Amino acid sequence: MGGQISLAEQYRRSGKRARRTTFMLVLPLLAFLVVSFVLPIGSMLMRSFDDSTVADILPRTAAALRSWDGKGRPPFSAYSALADDLSRANRTGQIGKVATRMNFERAGMRSLIIKTAREARGFVPPYAQAFNQVDLQWSDPEVWGALRHASAVATSGYYVSALDQTRKADGTWVPKPEEEQIYLTLFARTLVVAAGVTALCFLLGYPLAYYIAHLDERRRNLVLILVLLPFWTSLLVRTTAWIALLQTNGVVNDVIASVAGEEARMALIHNMTGTIIAMTHILLPFMVLPTYSVMLSVPPALKRAAVSLGAPPWTAFWRVYFPMTLPGAAAGGLLVFILALGYYITPALVGGRTGQLISNMIEFHMKTSLNWGLAAALGGLLLAAVLVLYVFYARLVGMNRLRLG
Amino acid sequence: MGRTTTIIIAAAAAVVILAGVLLYMLGRGGEKAVNQLDAELTDMQLPDANGTAAAPAGAAGGKPLVVVSWGGAYTKSQVEAYHKPFEAKTGTKINSVDYNGGVAEIKAQVEAGNVTWDVVDMEIADAQRACDEGLLEKIDAGMLPAAPDGTPAIQDFVANGITPCAVTTILFSHIVAFDTTKFEAKVPSKLADFFDVKNFPGKRGMRKTSPKINLELALRADGVPGDKVYEVLGTKEGVDRAFRKLDTIKDHVIWWEAGAQPPQLLADGEVTMTTAYNGRIFDAMVMENKPFKIIWDGQLLELDVLGIVKGTKNLDKAMQFVAFATDTQRLADQAKWIAYGPARKSSLPLVGQHAEKGVDMKPHMPNSPENAANAIQIDFLWWADRQEELNQRWAAWLAK
Fold this sequence. Notes:
The complex is a heterodimer.
Chain A: H1 7-47, H2 53-57, H3 59-66, H4 76-92, H5 95-105, H6 109-119, H7 127-134, H8 141-151, H9 157-162, E1 165-167, E2 173-175, H10 183-213, H11 217-232, H12 235-246, H13 251-260, H14 272-296, H15 300-308, H16 313-341, H17 345-350, H18 358-367, H19 372-397
Antiparallel strand pairs in A: 1-2
Helix pairs in contact in A: 1-19, 3-4, 3-8, 4-6, 5-6, 10-14, 10-16, 14-16, 15-16, 16-19, 18-19
Chain B: H1 2-43, H2 57-61, E1 65-69, H3 72-90, E2 94-98, H4 104-112, E3 119-123, H5 124-132, H6 153-156, E4 162-163, E5 166-179, E6 204-207, H7 214-221, H8 229-233, H9 236-247, E7 253-256, H10 261-267, E8 273-277, H11 278-287, E9 292-308, H12 315-325, H13 328-334, E10 341-342, E11 376-377, H14 380-399
Parallel strand pairs in B: 1-2, 1-3, 6-7, 6-8, 9-11
Antiparallel strand pairs in B: 3-9, 4-5, 5-8, 5-9, 5-10
Helix pairs in contact in B: 3-13, 5-14, 7-9
């Protein structure tokens, strides 16, 4: 009959229906991820280069400085425009925002802008002189350079700061004075700590997973609970427990002192040692669990077969068993490494002076200095570093081989 | 078989939780409407049995006022001294909320247009910054009550006590405290002793969070007179000098961040001397009978203020609360509960005894004339200008 639908068409339709059902099933998760993950992170990253505070509040100045190349003196039009903009911003109460924003670019700009804005209404030509009468800093082209950089709608200034650099009026980058350089050191330290913690977790976690996987079923569950119990305990509790254990008059040092005398007490916490010990302990389950569950899936017969073919036990382990468990250990390693990169509560509590990581600076700029742009730039750089490392890791291990269980 | 079932159950649970969170987030918009309805219902005057409109406390007070502060003993002192009498006087209910300081939460609320905090207790430097960024309402100093003897509020408050967006309630102090049992032969008595590890051995506790306090203490210990501190710090050489002084004890310092830590470090024997907030040491000494002593020499005074979050729907009541809480009697009452100094000069003579321990509180006030002899006030406006570069240098110095 004419109305009959061909088999191919029926097949196509049912496939379409199945796909639609699948999509509907993942839709809640997709929507959740967009709302709670993609949007906040996207808007945070936007803040690292999109800052129109100065361009919005001082529009005429921004326009006047756009034509200036940052060399020599700023154009005369910039002076009159700034006088005008400042007195208006002072009237509308928005001057504080500009002042705060400018102080991120250059120390001392906050009071300079607020002081000048108070006087700006009475300025008469020649404006350059009027500015210099309020404060001689206005004769420094670098002050105008800072204004020019900040009045661009898209600014690279936060990334420049995040890389321990600063910009001259004409846009060239120069390193900050040595005593103010900090972020690159912290980035490097964060990567080293994360790699070190991952290595320690592997060294401690792999044998443990092997041990658990080879226990009989009843004992296995008991030992697994021992691994999971700290995992279910609050992060803060576990971290503070380490303080009680490791401090100068803590349990560990008391034992050391009773054996080797009072002088043998060691600084185990409030430094890098403390950070690494506490982080390794906290992240260990992330290594043990995937490794263990992959080990369970390796048939014991394979190793026996290798031995029966003449391999000594070590060769049977190294050539047959280990490669088959590597996907689990590699997945665990990736989990631990990425979690370690973003750790901040543990280093904040037990890191003291030398155990601080880049995430502690990000937290500082989010919560204390309110320099969200710089926090976003630091976060963006960290994210970029993770992505680059991830690509290398994927090449090295092969992402399709990773297994969590 | 059992494993597959577990995985399916876990996956199902995860999906249910995710869906729940999602629905909750989508529902937040609806929640606002519900809140509003709720508020309207509370405000509505329900007729009683006689048909006349009853005026219960809810109607007289309306929406509760949300007052945010630091929690613990400090919030308790405010609840006793400000909240309870204010509730009794006006019928407005006060919801007390705790936070950890900083401006981030206020900024997030104002930028999202969803202001749920009304009055916030903050450090003056934070209040200044929030004011600059337009996150706080302007407060008219004219509405603050005069002292009992008629002195206008502006003259009654300590220097810098009233700023465009904030009114000071108390002065707290950064002091050096030590464990008396650790120094029996030679007892430290002045700020410089803190930097003298040869004559006064032992670890030191210092605040890690910022260069503020530490740089000033270093310069004062190095012999810079109080009125010259910020002048010296204003130069590169002055900053270098402060860091050099800090270098001399860098290897002896255990760094703390939260105010509860220094008394704990002293009690645990981790340090023999530490910088601390005077109120925390008072608590340890008086409430817990710890053998600690405060060195008032060279103390740094800082102001704690009340500010009103921009865009609050409770503006009139918030203003009323700020004026009430900062009057002479209320500030004096607060000192019964905590060892922080009242910001009004007229409150100081009214300070009496501790409400629970009966200790005379006047000798514990940081701004009492004896204690404040060699004190300076931290210059928050100076710090507002210099904090970016100095914070960075501080972080770099710490990390080395």
